[in-house]
From TrEMBL:
GO molecular function list: metal ion binding
Keywords attached to this entry: Iron, Metal-binding
Pfam family, one: Pirin_C
Name under which the protein is recorded: Pirin family protein
Taxonomic lineage from the root: Bacteria, Pseudomonadati, Thermodesulfobacteriota, Desulfuromonadia, Geobacterales
Entry keyword annotation includes Iron: yes
Entry's cofactor comment: Binds 1 Fe cation per subunit.
Stretches of the chain forming a coiled coil according to its record: none
Source organism (scientific name): Oryzomonas rubra
InterPro entries assigned: Pirin, Pirin_C_dom, Pirin_N_dom, RmlC-like_jellyroll, RmlC_Cupin_sf
Residue ranges constituting the Pirin N-terminal domain according to the UniProt record: 21-121
Length: 302
């Protein structure tokens, strides 16, 4: 197998979304289409309830899928299809907005005060943007975990590892979503479909995310004009975007364990027209979506 090299590194940046939620944006609108078919990754991680309790009150989505993964804390949700519930530590909410959905996500104060979770946005191809919405609430107990001979532990939300299949299947972009923990000094290797986009987001610890270990072999986005002290080891809140050439990724933990999210998916190679919570292919489709939201005809399926 040929090992993929790093294309670019990004550091997540502070921003405020929803009704006042403080979070770190790993990538988003300004990086389109580099992460195709993925549009955005937000990391909300704070022990200050004032920074997460405002939440994300009722708002629309069309043309995308939103994937929420909670590590600590509780998030209450509801939507226009009548789904209601709370997702907690280890739970995943995979929502296909399709033709249109209105929902809210409201973090609740946890016993420890800590809230830590992630939300990905994945694009839908033109032929499925107006598909019927669907909702999947995946509990932590239903997400399999495998331990390799090297001691590497992998929670499989979607995708296949050592013959074990994650619970989220039949998704248009054929995604993988793994939560990977590598012991100090150990190595993780994982096959990746040719041409698919592959991304790692570091949660804790440090690791080497390709074989070269050369910090000047790739672009480090957002680096300052005097950033001469570049390191090839990647730490927390780092986004690793891999090149599309190569059949596997390789990660080696540093002197302490490293934990990261790994996502991969089939690029759509389609135009993106994006405004707020709606992502379509053309500006005209955006105009129609917002007109329908204003006149009450946005929801096509309940």
């Amino acid at each position: 197998m040929s090992t993929r090299a790093i294309d670019k590194l990004y550091k997540s940046r502070p921003t405020i979304e929803g009704a006042g939620v403080h979070l770190k944006r790993a990538f988003g609108n300004s990086q389109v289409p580099l992460f195709d078919p993925f549009l955005m990754l937000d990391d909300f991680h704070t022990a200050n309830p004032a920074e997460y309790l405002p939440g994300f009150p009722w708002h629309p989505h069309r043309g995308i899928e939103t994937i929420t993964y909670v590590l600590e804390g509780l998030v209450e949700h509801g939507d226009s299809m009548g789904n209601k519930g709370v997702i907690g530590p280890g739970d995943v909410q995979w929502m296909t907005a399709g033709s249109g959905i209105i929902h809210q996500e409201m973090p609740q104060k946890s016993p420890t005060g800590m809230m830590w979770g992630f939300q990905f946005w994945a694009n839908l191809p033109a032929g499925q943007k107006m598909m019927a919405p669907r909702y999947r609430d995946v509990k932590a107990a239903d997400i399999p975990e495998v331990t390799l001979d090297t001691g590497v532990r992998i929670k499989i939300v979607s995708g296949l590892v050592n013959g074990v299949q994650g619970p989220v299947r039949d998704i248009v972009i054929d995604p993988e979503m793994l939560d990977v923990s590598i012991p100090a000094g150990a190595t993780f290797r994982h096959p990746v479909t040719a041409g698919h986009t592959a991304i790692a987001y570091v949660l804790d610890g440090e690791g080497y995310f390709d074989e070269q270990r050369d910090a000047f072999a790739y672009e480090m986005a957002g680096a300052g004009w005097m950033d001469v002290d570049r390191r090839c080891i990647c730490g927390p809140e780092t986004v690793v975007l891999y090149k599309r050439e190569g059949s596997e990724v390789q990660v080696v933990a540093g002197e302490r364990p490293v934990r990261f999210l790994f996502i991969a998916g089939k690029p759509l190679h389609e135009p993106v027209a994006w405004y707020g919570p709606i992502v379509m292919n053309t500006q005209e489709e955006l105009r129609v979506a917002f007109e329908e939201f204003q006149n009450g005809t946005f929801i096509k399926s309940r």
